[in-house]
Structures are given as C-alpha cells and as structure tokens.
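HUMAN: Forgive my ignorance: could you write out one protein's sequence and backbone structure tokens?

ASSISTANT:
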Amino acid sequence: MPLPPLVPPAAPLTADQARRYSRQLLLPQIGELGQRRLLAARVCVIGAGGLGAPALLYLAAAGVGTLGIVDDDVVETSNLQRQVIHGESDVGRPKVASAAASIGRLAASVRVISHPERLTSENAHTILGGYDLVLDGSDNFATRYLVADTCAELGLPLVWASILRFDAQVSVFWSTPPAESGIAGVQLRDLFAMQPTDAGAESCETAGVLGALCGQVGSIMAGEAIKLITGAGTPLLGRVLVLDALTARWTEVPLRPSQVDAARRHPITPARPPASAASCSAPSAPTPTAKLSVELSVELLERRLAAREHGSDDFLLIDVREPDEHARGTIDGSVLLPLADILTESGRSVLLRHRPVIVYCLHEGRARQAARALMVDGFDSVCVLEGGYANWSEHRPPTAPGVAE
C-alpha cells in the first residue's frame, strides 16, 4: 500500500531545475510536485562505501536537496573496486571529503553536510535527528543496530541493506508509519532480534563482495528513498528483498512486527514533522509475538546426532552455505540447502514442517535468516547452531559432504 509523501514540497521549480530534472518530471508518480519534495528533502547516508557510494550519487542526481554523509574512514585502494564515488586520486583522503567533491561535480546545487566521525550512542540522536530519512550502508553490527534503534526512537524511516559475496538483502524499517496507510511499523529487531557480535563475523574484507552488486543494491536503496520522499509506489516496508546475484534471482520475505524490545516502540517526536500529521500517530497494535529460534551448542548437537543415529531423536540438519563452502567440509549427517533456496517457497517445499530443523552456516548470520524464514512459514521447531561451522570445526575435524536425504 502506498504511503503519503514524507516531505512537504519546496518552492516552485526554476527553469534550470525543470530542464535538469525533465526526465524525472515526466514520471506521473513524481512529477513537478514530487521533484519539489526531493529538493526539500534531507537525507542522511551512513557510510560512503560500497552501498553508500551509488546511493549518494543517485540521490544527488535525483535532486535531493540536502545529503548528510557519516563516515570516519579514509579511501583505500581496495575500496575502488566497488566504491564508485571515489577515484584513484582520492586514496588516503577522508571518504566524506571525497564523496562531497564527487557530489559537487555531479550536482553543485546539492547541499552536502559532512560528518567525519563514527556514529556513537552519544552523537546518534543529534546527527540523525536533523534529517527526514536515513540510509544505512554501514559495515558492522554495532553501527547497524545503533542506527536502527535511533531511527526507531526518532520515528525516522530507515532504508537498510546488507551485502556479502553475491548475496544481498534490502528493506525499509519505520517504527511509526502513517496510521492511514494501514501498515504496521517494523524495525531491524523484528528481523534480527538480537545484535550479533562482530567478533568472527564475515565481512567484505574476509569473504569478498561483487562490486556490481553494490551498485545494484545501492541504487535500490536510492529508489526506496525517492519513493518515500515523494509518496510514489509501494516501499519495502514489511518486506525483505533478497538477491542472489549468482543465479540472478530475486525473492521476497514478509516481515511482521514482534514485541521484541517493546520499549523501542515509543518513539520521540522527529526533529521536523513529516508532511502528514498522522505520521506522528502511535502505530497500530503489533501482531502476536514472533517465535524466536533457539541456539544449540556444539556439545548438544553432538549428543543429538548420536541420539539420531540410535533412533531416539529425529531432526533435519541443514547447511545453508553455498556449495563451494559445503564442498570444503561439512558436519556429518547434514544436507545442503543454501539460504537462497530456503528463502523461496519452492525451496522450503521439500522440507516437512512437523520435523525439527537445525540450521548452520559459517558463523550464524545466514543461519538466523534461514531460521526466520522457516518460522514465518510455520515450521514448529527451528534451532541455530551456536557459532556455526567455524565453532564446530574447532571441536571436530571436517568431514566430506554428505548425500541429501
């Protein structure tokens, strides 16, 4: 369902603005009024990296009037493979300065506010409170949850994405969407209730990432921001878009609100009220509390595998990693069903809903996503292996891949 425009319109367009944005003005869902809303909008982008780079460029090109950039890092040579807002001459330069210069060359009329600092609990409300909308392109769990929780408290919509290797996810979170939309508020903690630890987590630095995928996802983030600002189309609020670039397959997972961390559902008034006064209304009552997956220790899994071998336990152990990871070693007695398959209805259809399921990946991130999809689909018992295969392999030697049951 469409949402009302987030931002009131700026003054009528000048002749130069009408010429510059003429191709966008032709779109009836945006038009002259939508373009004026974009010119009045204030958008903050967390991170001028793989996701923030394309998002910033397309938001600037679209005519967003004010862009904030939060990043305390400098440009490195390894960034250039995907962070297209920077060039070779920018290596060693602060990312906020490099990004601001690129935006200036592309759209000199855009006001850029640089925040060359790390977002912390001390400055998050002050920084984010000055914007209408936030895009999160950060690269660590601590910042992601800080951004999400702060936006929930401020009542700000958040365009969120995550990317690694050839896989990506995109969604929109908003604790208090306008009541007339009939859409319940959802937050990051409705998708992943607890903040994982960054220790041992996979990252682009350790696992790699396809640069072109960053462009795809960053552009989608910019598109979602433009839709929210102008009221065009239906945003990804209450839906998680999942992309497997290797198979060029898009899937969608529904997201419903839970009552995890209910205190987060009492946001304070935004620094600048949205276009509709109803945006400040309390959200509709959440649906019943979502089931949460249970973590299973390596020791308990060993005991359950032994019991299954003797016929006193019955469960399906699923490796949700990619085939190349599975081929390098797996847990004896597990079957391979990559995350991208579990996120599709056809992929889940091969599983029996009444049979208990234990899922694992290298650490826990993908396994938690799989567990969430299974529980939303009605599976009764789902566990996640604590620490994943990395934790298992510290206790047990790897085995050759097994045959699917």
